[in-house]
C-alpha cells in the first residue's frame, strides 16, 4: 500500500512541529524518517498512523484519503521503542493476541492462528521460545516478538518508532540487518523513525531527512550522503570540516561555505594546486581507524583527517608523521553551499 502525505501541518501551541510536509512512499518501500530530537519525525509518523490529527493537509493510503480514518480502519502495525508486550502472556499468546480479539466473523480458526503464529515465530527466529514469558527474553528478542505481533494481523503498513532505541549498540546492529532481511521477504510498506544516521543509511531504501518540522531532503542513502541538498543534511550525515571562503560563485552570492569530509583529504609531502599547509596537532587511533587533527597555517583552524590505521602507519613511516610535523592536505572533494548575500 502506498502512502502519500500532502501539505501536512501540525502545531503544538505556536510551534509548527510539521510544517507543510509532502512525501510519497511507494508500495513496498522501507523509508526512514531521520532527524535530530524534536524535528517532528514522531509526530509525522503518528499522523500517518492516525494517532494524531493534523491541523491541515491530508494523508492518503493507496490514493484514498485516510486523514480522518480511525486507527483501526487503517490496517497499520506498530512497533515502538519500549516493547509493550503483555507480561502475563506467553510469547505465543502475545503474537496471537491481535487475531484472537477479532470479531468472531473474521477471526481465524484456532488451527489457523496456531499455524500463523508458528510461521511468524520462525520468521523472527524465536520458534524455540514460544512458551516463554516476556521477562524471560532479552531486549532484542522482545523487540522481535513485538514485530511478529505487529505482523500477525497482516498490516498493509508497518510503522516503527525508534524500534531499537533502547537496545545496546551490538544488538541494535544485528536487529537492523535482520529488519532489512525481513523487509526483503515481506515487502510491507514500512516507515521507521530514527535519529541514528548509520541506522537509516544501513536499513532504508530511502531516507527522509527532517529538521525543525521541515523535510530537508528525500533520497536513497547514497544520494543524500553524496549529494546533500543543504548544509544541514551534509552535517547530519557524518562528520565534516567546515571552511568559509570566497570562490567563483553565482551572482547575488558573495560568499560560500565549503565542507570536506575527514576521509576525503589526502596527506601529502609537497605543496600542489589546492593543497593546504598544515601542522599535525594530534593523532587518535580507535580500532581500525585513525583520526588526525591538523592545524591550518593560513588561519589557525583545525582540520580532521580520517584514514585506515594501515594507511596511517604507512604514511607515518614515509612522511615521518609526528606532532608538530608540517605537511600538506589535498581535498579530493569539496562541497560548497553559497551563502545568500
Ligand atoms: N503532545 C504534544 N504536546 C506538545 N508538544 C508536543 C507534543 N508532541 C510533541 N511535541 C513537541 O513537538 C516537537 C516535535 O516532536 P516529535 O516527537 O515529533 O519530534 P521527534 O523528531 O520525533 O523527536 P524525538 O526523536 O525526540 O522523539 C517537539 O518540540 C516536542 O516537544
TrEMBL record:
Record flagged with keyword Transport: yes
Swiss-Prot/TrEMBL keywords: ATP-binding, Cell membrane, Membrane, Nucleotide-binding, Sulfate transport, Translocase, Transport
InterPro entries: AAA+_ATPase, ABC_SmlMolc_Importer, ABC_transporter-like_ATP-bd, ABC_transporter-like_CS, P-loop_NTPase, Sulph_transpt1, TOBE-like
Source taxon at top rank: Bacteria
GO molecular function, one term: ATP binding
Ranges for domain ABC transporter: 3-237
Classification via PANTHER family: SPERMIDINE/PUTRESCINE IMPORT ATP-BINDING PROTEIN POTA, SPERMIDINE_PUTRESCINE IMPORT ATP-BINDING PROTEIN POTA
Protein name per Swiss-Prot or TrEMBL: Sulfate ABC transporter ATP-binding protein
Organism: Ideonella lacteola
Amino acid at each position: 500500500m502506498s502512502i502519500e502525505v500532502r501539505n501536512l501541518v501540525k502545531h503544538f501551541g505556536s510551534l509548527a512541529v510539521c510544517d507543510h510536509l509532502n512525501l510519497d512512499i511507494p508500495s513496498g518501500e522501507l523509508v526512514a524518517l531521520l532527524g535530530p530530537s524534536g524535528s517532528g519525525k514522531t509526530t509525522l509518523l503518528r499522523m500517518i498512523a492516525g494517532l494524531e490529527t493534523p491541523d491541515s493537509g491530508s494523508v492518503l493510503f493507496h490514493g484514498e484519503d485516510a486523514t480522518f480514518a480511525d486507527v483501526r480502519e487503517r490496517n497499520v502495525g506498530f512497533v515502538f521503542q519500549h516493547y509493550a508486550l503483555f507480561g502475563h502472556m506467553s510469547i505465543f499468546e502475545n503474537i496471537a493476541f491481535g487475531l484472537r480479539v477479532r470479531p468472531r466473523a473474521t477471526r481465524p480458526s484456532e488451527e489457523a492462528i496456531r499455524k500463523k503464529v508458528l510461521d511468524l515465530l520462525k520468521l523472527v527466529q524465536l520458534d524455540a521460545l514460544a512458551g516463554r514469558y516476556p521477562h524471560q527474553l532479552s531486549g532484542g528478542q522482545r523487540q522481535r516478538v513485538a514485530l511478529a505481533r505487529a505482523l500477525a494481523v497482516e498490516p498493509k503498513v508497518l510503522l516503527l518508532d525508534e524500534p531499537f532505541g533502547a537496545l545496546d549498540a551490538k544488538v541494535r546492529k544485528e536487529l537492523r540487518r535482520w529488519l532489512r532481511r525481513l523487509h526483503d521477504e515481506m515487502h510491507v510498506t514500512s516507515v521507521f523513525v530514527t535519529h541514528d544516521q548509520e541506522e537509516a543509511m544501513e536499513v532504508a531504501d530511502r531516507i527522509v531527512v527532517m529538521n525543525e518540522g521541515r523535510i530537508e531532503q528525500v533520497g536513497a542513502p547514497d544520494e543524500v550522503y553524496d549529494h546533500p541538498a543543504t548544509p544541514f543534511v551534509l552535517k547530519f550525515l557524518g562528520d565534516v570540516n567546515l571552511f568559509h571562503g570566497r570562490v567563483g560563485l553565482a551572482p547575488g552570492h558573495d560568499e560560500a561555505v565549503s565542507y570536506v569530509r575527514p576521509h576525503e583529504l589526502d596527506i601529502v609531502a609537497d605543496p600542489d594546486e589546492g593543497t593546504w599547509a598544515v601542522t599535525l596537532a594530534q593523532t587518535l587511533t580507535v580500532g581500525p581507524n585513525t583520526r588526525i587533527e591538523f592545524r591550518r597555517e593560513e588561519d589557525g583552524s583545525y582540520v580532521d583527517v580520517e584514514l585506515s590505521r594501515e594507511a596511517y602507519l604507512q604514511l607515518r613511516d614515509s612522511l615521518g608523521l609526528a606532532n608538530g610535523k608540517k605537511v600538506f592536505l589535498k581535498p579530493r572533494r569539496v562541497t560548497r553551499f553559497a551563502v545568500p548575500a
